[in-house]
């Protein structure tokens, strides 16, 4: 495999924003590994992505809540392609309920996936990204700066993720690693059991976030957009 190739690992890449990012990166000529807790979903999504460019995608069964699982995912990418250039920490979950009704299990899963899972991803990827002078991108949310009723778990996880990402950026930039957090508003995905339809045409599309990622990695090394808020340009009145 040529040393000129670039590779990316995207958590939660079998659907939604993660899949949209993978589509765009493959079209840019980047080899992509996507992860899912479901081995079947990961394999099916990778097969679909390989219809864009044959041999450019692999699916990995991995759970961001487990550090060893994340380390294995990174090792699989390095074993396959010799390097890891871009890590997109995208896996996320949403549980929404007033604090009176929010269960301990829903709280724990939200924090474990949306926040601790990104910490485990970073720990697993740091060595490979240091070697490649790579990029660690987190997918947060406008809910990371804007709170709302019923959002105590989700807000806490995304506020924490924004803080984590910005602090990590300052920790690793002198090692040549870039860190950016992307904070989308309404995106047309299956998130939180939503079923996308033509009524979602006004929303940000998953491939729009993919284009932002593709543009970020082209920015000169001397420049770092550390936090990007993304909103639909024309929401319903």
From TrEMBL:
Name of the protein described by the UniProt record: NAD(P)-dependent dehydrogenase (Short-subunit alcohol dehydrogenase family)
InterPro entries membership: KR_dom, NAD(P)-bd_dom_sf, Sc_DH/Rdtase_CS, SDR, SDR_fam
Organism: Dyadobacter arcticus
SUPFAM superfamilies, A to Z: NAD(P)-binding Rossmann-fold domains (SSF51735)
Lineage: Bacteria, Pseudomonadati, Bacteroidota, Cytophagia, Cytophagales
All residue ranges annotated as the Ketoreductase domain in the record: 6-191
Gene3D superfamilies: NAD(P)-binding Rossmann-like Domain
Family per record: Belongs to the short-chain dehydrogenases/reductases (SDR) family.
NCBIfam families: PRK07326.1 (NF005594)
UniProt superkingdom: Bacteria
């Amino acid at each position: 495999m040529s040393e000129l190739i670039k590779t990316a690992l995207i958590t939660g890449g079998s659907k939604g924003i993660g899949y949209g990012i993978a589509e765009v990166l493959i079209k840019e000529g980047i080899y992509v590994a996507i992860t899912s807790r479901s081995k079947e979903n990961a394999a099916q999504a990778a097969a679909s992505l390989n219809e864009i460019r044959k041999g450019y995608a692999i699916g990995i069964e991995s759970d961001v809540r487990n550090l060893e699982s994340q380390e294995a995912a990174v090792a699989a990418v390095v074993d396959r392609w010799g390097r890891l250039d871009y890590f997109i920490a995208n896996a996320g979950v949403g549980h929404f309920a007033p604090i009176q009704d929010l269960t301990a299990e829903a709280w724990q899963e939200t924090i474990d996936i949306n926040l601790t899972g990104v910490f485990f991803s970073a720990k697993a990827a740091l060595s490979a990204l240091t070697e490649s002078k790579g990029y660690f991108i987190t997918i947060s949310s406008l809910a990371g700066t804007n709170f709302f009723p019923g959002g105590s778990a989700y807000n806490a996880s995304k506020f924490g993720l924004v803080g984590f990402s910005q602090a990590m950026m300052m920790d690793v930039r002198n090692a040549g690693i870039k860190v950016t957090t992307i904070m989308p508003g309404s995106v047309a995905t299956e998130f939180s059991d939503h079923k996308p339809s033509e009524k979602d045409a006004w929303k940000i599309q998953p491939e729009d976030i993919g284009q932002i990622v593709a543009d970020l990695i082209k920015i000169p090394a001397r420049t770092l957009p550390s936090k990007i808020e993304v909103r639909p340009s024309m929401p319903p009145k």
